Amino acid sequence: MNLAAPSLLASDRSRAELPDTKVAPDVYSTKQAGGVAVSLKDMARIAGAVNDRLTEALLEISSINFQTRLLSFNAQLEASRAGEAGRAFDVVAREMVALSDRTGSAARRLEGDTNADLSDLAGRINAVGTEVRGARLSDLAFTNMDLIDRNLYERSCDVRWWATDSSCVLALLDPEGESDRASQRLGVILDAYTVYYDIVLCDSEGTVISNGRPDKFRCKGTNQSSTPWFRSAMATRNGGEFGFAGLHRSQTLANNQMVLVYSAAVRRDGRADGEIVGCLGIVFNWEALAQTIVLRTQLGETEKRHTRVCIVDAQGAVIADNRLGHLRDCIALGSFSKLIECRKGYVITELEGIKSIVSYAYSPGYETYATGWHSFIIQDLEID
């Protein structure tokens, strides 16, 4: 099934309500679902099988009962022909008819009561199974979002710390004599990480004077003064604040790869309250984090074929997706306003005519940092 359904996802990034999306009125918080995750679907199948076998047995009893009544009527007929000699046999035959009537009545009561009870049991098992499944998927959605928040918090710490490095400060004060040394120092930092494309150092006018991987990314000499990450860093009030640029493709900094850029002002003497002399930007490899997380979500092989896992930004744009729809698709968040109000939970809805579980978690944040993004796991309700 293609879960990138028109009723859920709009490729033109329209945020309008989707009239053909049928959202169930009840949104479930994961606090409602508990117990042990057992094979409730199998239990429902067993209840259904018991019901089927009981129905077969009752049909057989009914058939036997019918044959008994025929034999009884035949016995009565023969007894009447025998006259006085058959009177005792006639009494037995009539008792057989009465017994057959009682057997038939008991079988009908058993059929009515048991069918209703077993159907109710199967329904309850399926309902509990859906709750357990929805809670599990919501927990997975939360885990994905929590991993991203925690990881990106570390990125904000990295850039604020590295902006105090003496090699960066000296290079900005003496670009001619120190820029190569700063480039070497930034290269050493990059060697210890796998999540960064590059680290760039800009002067106060936005010109890149050094970067950690000059052999791979030829951004030295380019001007970054118009970028959000440079402007936001230069507007910070102290060394505890940082700048940021959201997910985008950067030709200049990362050869058109998808990146997030965290930034911090470089201040004289590395002091938190020092004069701003430039800006440090760290170019984060977004796919190395987000795509890895969504692709490694703990789902069974069968589940994976029926499940879409994605991260969505505050505007509804899909920015990570196990179906590779990131930066193309958009979830109309207004269609799930009740679910989003819960911050974590699930809803049963219909997508492309298929009943689905839409599980959700909002950015929990970590320490002083929160992305404000959304995590969705969308799965067919019925899985083969």
Secondary-structure blueprint:
Elements: E1 22-29, H1 40-82, H2 87-162, H3 166-173, H4 175-191, E2 196-203, E3 208-211, H5 228-234, E4 243-250, H6 251-254, E5 257-267, E6 276-285, H7 286-295, H8 301-305, E7 307-312, E8 318-321, H9 337-342, E9 344-351, E10 354-362, E11 374-380
Antiparallel strand pairs: 1-9, 2-3, 2-6, 4-5, 5-6, 7-8, 7-11, 9-10, 10-11
Please give a handful of descriptors for the protein shown.
384 residues, alpha+beta, Helix Hairpins, Beta-Lactamase, six-stranded antiparallel beta sheet, five-stranded antiparallel beta sheet, 9 helices, disordered N terminus
Number of strand segments = 11
How would you sum up the global shape?
rod-shaped
Provide the CATH top-level class of the domain at 155-289: Alpha Beta
Element pattern in H and E: EHHHHEEHEHEEHHEEHEEE
Q: What name goes with the CATH superfamily of the domain at 155-289?
A: PAS domain
| Main sheet: strands, sense, barrel | 6 strands, antiparallel
Radius of gyration: 35 Å
- Strands in their spatial order, largest beta sheet: 1-9-10-11-7-8
Residue runs with pLDDT of under 50 for 5 or more positions: 1-25, 29-38
Oligomer: single chain
End-to-end Cα distance, whole Å, is 12 Å
Query: What is the CATH T-level topology of the domain at 155-289?
Result: Beta-Lactamase
- Into which percent range does the helicity of residues fall? 40-55%
Average pLDDT score? 82
Strand content: 15-25%
Report on the architecture of this protein:
This protein is α+β, with helices and mostly antiparallel strands and 384 residues long. Among the domains are: 40-127, Methyl-accepting chemotaxis protein (Helix Hairpins, Orthogonal Bundle), CATH 1.10.287; 155-289, 2-Layer Sandwich (Beta-Lactamase), CATH 3.30.450.20. Helix content is 46%, strand content 22%. The protein contains 9 helices and 11 strands. The strands form 2 sheets. The protein has a 6-stranded antiparallel beta sheet. A 5-stranded antiparallel beta sheet has the order 3-2-6-5-4. It is rod-shaped and about 135 Å long. Mean pLDDT is 82; it is low at 1-25 and 29-38.
